[in-house]
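Subject: two folds for Thursday's group meeting

Dear M.,

Sorry for the delay on this. The cluster queue was jammed most of the week, so I only got both jobs back this morning. I'm pasting them in the order they finished. Each block is the input sequence followed by the predicted structure tokens. Could you check whether the formatting survives your parser before we put anything on slides? The first protein is the one we discussed after the seminar.
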Amino acid sequence: MLERKEAENNIYEISKTFAIRIVNLYKYLKEEKSEIIMSKQLFRSGTSIGANVFEGKNAQSRADFTNKMNVALKEATESAY
């Protein structure tokens, strides 16, 4: 089992938790606020972070890993916007 500090810094768990929160926010915006366009974009960029992080976990090279992490960073920046 990971120690608390290691678990807090585990990018795989953090990105998964974030994606789950984004999905819940998307559902709320769509159902309660009838917001479609922005919620879809937030859904795509927010869930893409975790997808790229997990792809990076199985990267074929260090350059491939770096590329996946950079894409995840760009998606995180877009989600924050």
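Second protein, same layout:
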Amino acid sequence: MEFENQSLLVPLFGQFDANLVQVENRLGVFISARGDHVQIEGPEDSVARARETIQSMYDRLAQGQDLDAGAIESLIAMSNEPTFEGIVKGEPDSPPIMIRTRRKTIVPRSAMQATYMRSLARDDIIFALGPAGTGKTYLAVAQAVSQLINGSVQRLILSRPAVEAGEKLGFLPGDMKDKVDPYLRPLYDALYDCMPPEQVERRLASGEIEIAPIAFMRGRTLADAFVILDEAQNTTREQMKMFLTRFGQNSRMVIAGDPRQVDIPGGDGMSGLADATAKLEGVEGFGTIRFTVADVVRHPIVGRIVEAYEGPTE
């Protein structure tokens, strides 16, 4: 392989060629770099995947995007997807698949993320199902921030059930915000990653961004809003029905959760998420995205942890 822009070679190869070593170790090939040339040796299929991965790494840097170990791992995983060709560029004559926020431009890290991002831009209500680390909540928050910035929605509402994950926290001190914030912290984390902190604080103070437990949604009509319900597997059937019927004009909803991690008493039989997807999948205006362990985009060990705990996919 030969690369034109030599200024990109240092971040492409990594310190002490660490990025190339990562590709070597994952794909079982030998890579040597000299000047602006890279030579790959090994089994034909592995060489083809390594070439595709390194070219995608270079393209990512050329587009001004970051390249870290997680991004490389995702590109390696996508190199085995039959839909890898054009996954970021999208279909011919269509715009690239990406989400632009004030802090970064986000592109899909797996084929299923590309499908999810298309659904986020198209469907009114989206169910995002799957294990931790697949980008369900993060991409939804990024899309919501993007639409809030460009003015296509007036409000961003983030919610989740206030349910402990297998432990009893007991009495929590402070006012209502102090009591519910520990449950909503993952939403804050995604929000701060997509917007400068001062903008987040200003929009929270003005009410443009609202973060609240699902109980606060009752009796409201959520118009001109992008609404995200996280950890939706911990809703009851009644809570889910109440939440879905808050949908208003010019709104979009994302309901994200892992059906295999239900923390409410009664287990899967009581989960509003499982009930809603069974009733509404295929209904016009709804999109359902199902992630698997193969779509985990955190550190590779997270995918192996999820797979070890869940066992074979049903």
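Two things I noticed about the second structure. The chain has eleven helices and ten strands. The mean pLDDT is 81.

Cheers,
T.
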